[in-house]
Amino acid sequence: MKTRDLAYVALFAALTAALGLLPAIPVAALPVPITAQTLGVMLAGAVLGAKRGFLALLLFLVLVAVGLPVLSGGRGGLSVFVGPSAGFLYSWPVAAFVTGLLVELLWRRLNVATALLATVVGGIGVVYAIGIPFISLYADTSLAAAATGSLVFVPGDLVKAVVAAVLAVAVRRAYPVIERPRRAAATP
Amino acid sequence: MTLALYVPGPSPVHRTPAGVKLLALLVLGVVVFVVPTLPVAAGVLVGVVLVGLVVARLPGRLLVRQVRVVAVWAVAILVFHALATDLLTGLTTAVRLVALVLAAAVVTATTRVTALVAVVERLCAPLRLVGVRPARIGLAVAMALRFVPLVAERADRIREAQAARGGRVRGPRALVLLVVPLLVSVLQLAHTVGEALDARGADTA
C-alpha cells in the first residue's frame, strides 16, 4: 500500500471521528443515539473503494480501542467493544467494504440511484445483519426482539444513505479516487 | 495526549504491561460467557470495582459515568428476561454486562494510547508475511489524529468563504455545497501529505 493510500485511509478514519463531533439526536428510551457517524462508513466505502474503505474503518476502530473518545458523545475505549451494541461497531469495516465493492462494480454507471443501492445495501443492510444478531446473542433475546428495537434507526439511516449517495456521485465527478477499470483507461 | 481517556497514576495496575491487561480482559470476557452464573458475574464485578477503585485509585465518577452509559441496556435486558424467561437469567446477563464494561474501562483508563498502539503493532507482526508493515499502523494512527482538527478547520474555512460571497442556501443543498468542496479539499490534502511523507523516506520505513 502506497503512503498516499495510507493517508486516504487515515483521512476517512478522521472524517468518521469528526462526524462524531456533530450533535447526536437522542432517541427517547434508547441507549444508542442517532449519529452522523455511519455517514462516514458509507462515504469511506463509496469514495475510497472496498479495500481502503475497510481499512479506514478498521483504523477508526483502533482509535476507539486505544482509548480516544472519537465515538459520538465522546465515548471510546475498550468498553464499547464488550457492550450489547458492539456488533454495530464491528459491522462498520465490513459495511464500508461492501459499499465500496458495489461502488467499484457500478463505477462506470454510477449515478445517485446506483450509488444509493450501494449505500443502502452496504451501509444499512450489512450493519443490521451483523448488529442485530449480536444483540440477540449477547442479551439472550430473540432476533425479532432485537430487531424491533433497531427499527427506529432506519429512517435516519435512509437519510444518511441518500446524502452519502449524492456526495459520492459529486466527489466521483470532482476528484475520483477509485481507479477506473483498466479497460476504460486503455481507450482514450 | 489530553484528548485520551487515560488517567495517569502510579499504581501497579498502571505499571502492568498493556499486553497483559488486554489478555486479562479477554480471559474475563470468555469466563463470564462460558460460565453464565450470577456468582461468577457478580464476583467479576466486585473484583473489577476493587481493582479500579482501590488498587488503581481511579476516580469513582469515571466508573459511574461508564455504568450510566450502559444502564439503559442493563435495565432493558433485565426487564426483558423478567418477562420472557426468568429474573435470574436477566440479573446474570445485566451484571455480566456491567462487569465487562467496567473491566474494559479500567484497562482504558490505566493504559497509555502509545502503549496500546504498540500492542496493536505487535499483534499485527505476523501480517508481515502477507506484506503488511506493522510500523505503518502507528503512522496511520498519527495521521488520523492530525487530520481530525484539519478537517474541522477546512470546513470552517469553506463556510467562511461561502458566507463572504453572500447568498444563503438552506436545507440539503447547503450540506452538499459544504461537504463536496470539503471532501475534495481534504482528499487533495491527504494526497499531498502522502507524497510529502514519501519524499522524506516514509515509504522505505
Automatic annotation (TrEMBL), chain A:
PANTHER family: BIOTIN TRANSPORTER BIOY, BIOTIN TRANSPORTER BIOY-RELATED. This is Biotin transporter. InterPro entries: BioY (IPR003784). It is found in: Cell membrane. Belongs to the BioY family. Keywords: Cell membrane, Membrane, Transmembrane, Transmembrane helix, Transport. It is a multi-pass membrane protein. It comes from Klenkia terrae. The chain crosses the membrane at residues 34-50, 57-82, 88-107, 114-138, 158-175. The keyword Oxidoreductase does not apply. Signal peptide: none annotated.
From TrEMBL, chain B:
It is a multi-pass membrane protein. Its main location: membrane. It is found in: Membrane. Pfam families: CbiQ. The keyword Methyltransferase does not apply. Coiled coil: none annotated. The chain crosses the membrane at residues 22-55, 67-85, 97-120, 174-191. The keyword Membrane applies. Keywords: Membrane, Transmembrane, Transmembrane helix. InterPro entries: ABC/ECF_trnsptr_transmembrane. PANTHER family: PROTEIN ABCI12, CHLOROPLASTIC. This is Energy-coupling factor transporter transmembrane component T. The lineage of its organism: Bacteria, Bacillati, Actinomycetota, Actinomycetes, Geodermatophilales.
